[in-house]
Design goal:
This protein has one domain: Barwin-like endoglucanases, CATH 2.40.40. It is 11% helix and 47% strand. The chain is built from 2 helices and 8 strands. The N and C termini lie far apart (39 Å). The chain is mostly beta strands. A hairpin with a 5-residue loop joins strand 4 and strand 5.
């Protein structure tokens, strides 16, 4: 049996941009993507600490070490610049494998969105 389990998490990053006139997605600093084991095009859940919104979108790569966290397209209506969000990626794992799997958890500097 396969179960869906936490694979990746970028915990408490600040939204730096919201671009309504884009085709959609979340742009994430490439260094954060790598640290969290996320890839371009991967589906992620966004949890907004400021307003309680939860929604899904997909990842696109931002400039490395830019600190960029930009919600694009319709997702831009779910956040405001400077909101604090959590970005979560899930994966399908065999039930037994999931018991010992260790997700990639990233805790960047909340003020800069960079890894110290």
């Amino acid at each position: 049996m396969l179960i869906q389990a936490l694979k990746s998490k970028i915990h408490r990053v600040r939204v730096t941009q919201a671009d309504l006139n884009y085709i959609g997605s979340i742009t994430i600093d490439e260094a954060l993507m790598e640290a969290a084991n996320l890839i371009e095009g991967e589906r992620v859940q966004i949890v907004n600490i400021n307003n309680g919104e939860r929604f899904e979108t997909y990842v696109i790569k931002g400039d490395r070490r830019s600190g960029m966290i930009c919600l694009n397209g319709p997702a831009a209506r779910r956040v405001a610049v400077d909101d604090i969000i959590i970005i979560i990626g899930y994966g399908y794992l065999d039930f037994e494998e999931a018991k010992s799997f260790k997700p990639s958890l990233v805790f960047p500097n909340e003020a800069t969105n960079l890894l110290d």
